[in-house]
Structures are given as C-alpha cells and as structure tokens.
C-alpha cells in the first residue's frame, strides 16, 4: 500500500494506472503517426506531449469516475467493458470541448476518432493482461496473524469476501495461551520457540496483532521486538483494516489508539482549504445542476403538489442542529404518526418521482445551499436526525466522533456502502466515517467526488 495524504492506495491500483497512462499516451502518438504515415513531411511527434498528457489525464478521470479502479469490486472483462464504453464516450466529449476551448491542443476529429479506437483496444488488452497477472499473485506479500480468537476470526471472514487484487495473503494464525480457538484448526500454525524462526521459515513480511488482551505474560513482546528490529512489519489489527479496507473497525478500537494515532487534522490551514473547496465545488455544481433542479421541482409539483422542498432537523459539527434542505421524495403524510422511521427498501411512502431522484441522489442537491451557508461541507459524514443520533450514540461506541467534522452532501461511507436503514447499517457506515474523520484531506475529498459520479450514474445505494 502507498500512503498519500493519509489515504491508502493499493500498489496494484498505482501500477495499473501507471500502465494505462503509458498506453493512453502511446496511442496518441500511434494514432497521429498512422494518420500522417504517407505524408512527405510527417507530423512532428515530438510536439505531441501536451496533447498526449491531456488525453491520458481526461481518460483516467473518466475511467475512475466509472469505478474502473475500485479493484475490490472484482471487475471481470464483462464489467470492464460495461464501464469502459461510457468512459470512452465521456472522454471523447470532454476532449472535443477542450479542443474548442484550447485550440493549441487540437488534434483533429479524424485523429481523435482513431486514437479512441486504439485506446479502446489498448485498455482492454491491458486489463486482460492485468487480470491474468493478478491471478498469478506475482506481487502478493504474505503475513501471519498473532492470535486465534474473535479478532483473528475477522481475517478469516475477510479472506472469504476479499478481492484477489489486495496483494496480501494470510498464511496462518499463531496461537497464544488462554485464547479460545475461533479460526479453522487447519490454519493454526504449530507452536515454535521463536517467532522470528517462524517468520523466516514462512518468508512472511508482516505480523498482524489480533488479540484482545495485551497485558500479562502471554504477549510475546520480546519476540515481536526481535522481528521488528529485523525488518518485519508489525501491525495492529485496527491499523490493518484501516489500511486494507478503508475503514476503522469499531470492535478493534481502544481509546489510546485514537489518542496517540495519527490523523484527525483540524488545523486552521486544513479548515481554510476545505472551506474554499466547499464553496468552489458548490458553486460549480449549482451552475451545472440548475436545469436538473428546475425539472425536478416541476415533476414533484405535478405529481404530489406542494411543498417541493423538505426541511428537516439534522445534527452537524459539534452536535449542533441545523435544518437541511432536500427535494421532497415522500408523500406529505410519510410520518403522520410523528415518529421518525428508517428508510426501507422499496419504501411505499416514496413517490414515483421520489424513487427516481433518490436513486440518482438528485434529492440531495438543495443541500448545496447548506454548504454555502456553512452548515455542511461538500464532503463529510451524512448528517442524521437527532432522534436517530441519540439512539445510535447509546448503542454504538465512538459514534459521536463523526460529529467532529461538518457533515457532507457526499462522503466516504456513501460511496463505499449502501443506504443506511438500520442500526447494523449505521455501525458499518460509522466505520467508514471514522476513517474519513481520521484521514480527511483534499486528496481524499477529490477521490470521493470522483467515486460519487459512479454512484449517481449507476444508481448505487439508493432507496
């Protein structure tokens, strides 16, 4: 894993992006060379670097927006083709617009068409080679888990549902005294006198600590120190899941880890950068979506009458409440009993227009004005209603930590998990929210915005 601005990026993803940037730049040179192959004075290929760089940048963004770099989603060639086609169409449109805005980058429609065909073939061949390469596990490193109890069992569950692209394989579990066996007996490694000798024999590069109690004589502190001094990485289970899954496991947390760990940047500089980003992004989105918002308002009015907007109390930064604005997606009598209710799958209270705008997240667009007012941020944890917040704080440890930053229109939990509709969903989403609160940066905000495009276009997670 590479760490960029506190956010972890898979080595495999970085290598794939690097390979595809090379392919995309190469096809610009190749397409231009083929187009002017028969000319007496061939086109100067040495002057194509700005055009090739712009084309590669635009296409990588379009593919990222369609989720082609979310390798944990287990994309096969069929899914790749399904996402690559709209990526190329969007890239063609953006490049055409760039040609008109920046004439110096103009390639010509014939060349661009040829380059797009070559890019389609090149990306498909790159992906096919990547899938084959991934199946060989050439860059996969190995690790052992110290512990065989409840925390260790989480690694067994992860292995069942994890992607082959993660680049790490758990080769076994090291038993400790006074721990109940909760992992498959076949995966338990034999007891050894020295942990370092086991590491050398299995050729592992990392030891993951997955035990609840670390005091007393059962914790092999000297063995771990020896491994650490010999270049073996020693990782806490909470840090491991943060790194590998982009979330912080609530059941692996303890206060000292939150206190002494890194992250949680609330500096004046970070606050100022985030506010500027919020205002600029909100104004751009408002200009782009004004026609969509006008049509949505008209459709709501025609189907179910007034009110068009729905105002509701939500909990913001520091536990302060504010009124959030949304397009009304439910009937006027949705909560006629007066008691708040979780949203349901195929909720009968949702109108026909409401079902569409929820799926496409259009109902969230009026929250742009909450961002401009300063009540919300563009990116952050989803704001919840006080009724549910009080319930969740009582049931879920560390739930209140998410209120240390402003809530957002979109967020890490929204792009990584489905729409929350229960306490169990709230726990799962909290783990992503904690990751964002701990590691938020401008870089992570941009990644979330790019992934939000996929959520909107493919209607992921709406109810």
UniProtKB/TrEMBL annotation:
Enzyme class: transferase
Molecular function terms, GO-annotated: undecaprenyl-phosphate galactose phosphotransferase activity
Keywords for this protein: Membrane, Transferase, Transmembrane, Transmembrane helix
Domain Bacterial sugar transferase: 274-457
Organism domain of life: Bacteria
UniProt-listed Enzyme Commission number(s): 2.7.8.6
Protein name: Sugar transferase, PEP-CTERM system associated/exopolysaccharide biosynthesis polyprenyl glycosylphosphotransferase
Membrane topology field: Multi-pass membrane protein
Main location: membrane
UniProt-listed InterPro entries: Bact_transf, EPS_sugar_tfrase, Sugar_tfrase_EpsB_2
Lineage: Bacteria, Pseudomonadati, Pseudomonadota, Betaproteobacteria, Nitrosomonadales
Cell location: Membrane
A GO-annotated cellular component: membrane
Listed transmembrane segments: 12-32, 52-69, 81-102, 108-130, 279-302
NCBIfam families on file: EPS_sugtrans, EpsB_2
Family to which the UniProt record says this protein belongs: Belongs to the bacterial sugar transferase family.
Any Pfam family hit: Bac_transf
């Amino acid at each position: 894993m590479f760490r960029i601005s506190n956010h972890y990026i898979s080595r495999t993803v970085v290598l794939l992006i690097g390979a595809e940037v090379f392919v995309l730049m190469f096809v610009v040179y190749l397409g231009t060379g083929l187009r002017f192959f028969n000319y007496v004075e061939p086109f100067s290929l040495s002057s194509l670097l700005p055009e090739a760089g712009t084309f590669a940048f635009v296409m990588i963004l379009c593919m990222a927006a369609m989720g082609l770099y979310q390798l944990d989603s287990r994309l096969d060639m069929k899914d790749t083709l399904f996402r690559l086609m709209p990526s190329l169409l969007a890239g063609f449109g953006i490049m055409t617009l760039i040609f008109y805005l920046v004439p110096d980058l103009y390639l010509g429609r014939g060349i661009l068409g040829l380059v797009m065909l070559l890019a389609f073939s090149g990306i498909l061949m790159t992906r096919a080679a990547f899938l084959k390469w991934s199946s060989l596990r050439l860059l996969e490193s190995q690790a052992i888990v110290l512990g065989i109890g409840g925390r260790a069992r989480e690694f067994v569950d992860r292995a069942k549902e994890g992607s082959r692209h993660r680049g790490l394989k758990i080769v076994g579990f090291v038993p400790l005294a006074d721990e109940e066996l909760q992992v498959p007996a076949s995966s338990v490694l034999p007891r050894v006198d020295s942990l370092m000798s086991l590491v050398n024999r299995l050729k592992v590069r990392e030891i993951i600590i997955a035990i609840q109690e670390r005091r007393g004589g059962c914790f092999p502190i000297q063995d771990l120190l020896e491994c650490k001094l010999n270049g073996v990485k020693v990782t806490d289970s909470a840090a491991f899941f943060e790194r590998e899954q982009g979330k912080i496991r609530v059941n692996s947390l303890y206060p000292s880890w939150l206190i002494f760990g890194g992250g949680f940047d609330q500096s004046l500089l970070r606050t100022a950068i985030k506010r500027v980003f919020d205002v600029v992004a909100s104004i751009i989105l408002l200009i782009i979506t004004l026609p969509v918002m006008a049509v949505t308002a008209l459709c709501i009015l025609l189907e179910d009458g007034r009110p068009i907007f729905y105002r509701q109390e939500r909990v913001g930064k520091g536990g302060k409440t504010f009124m959030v604005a949304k397009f009304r997606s439910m009937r006027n009598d949705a909560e006629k009993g007066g008691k708040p209710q979780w949203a349901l799958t195929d909720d009968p209270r949702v109108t026909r227009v409401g079902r569409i705008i929820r799926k496409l997240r259009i109902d969230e667009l009026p929250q742009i004005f909450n961002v401009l007012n300063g009540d919300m941020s563009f990116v952050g944890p989803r704001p919840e209603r006080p009724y549910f917040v009080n319930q969740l704080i009582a049931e879920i440890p560390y739930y209140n930590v998410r209120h240390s930053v402003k809530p957002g229109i979109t967020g890490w939990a929204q792009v990584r998990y489905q729409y929350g509709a229960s306490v169990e969903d709230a726990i799962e989403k909290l783990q992503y929210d904690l990751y964002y609160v701990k590691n938020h940066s401008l870089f992570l905000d941009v990644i979330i915005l790019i992934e939000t495009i996929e959520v909107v276009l493919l209607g992921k997670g709406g109810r």
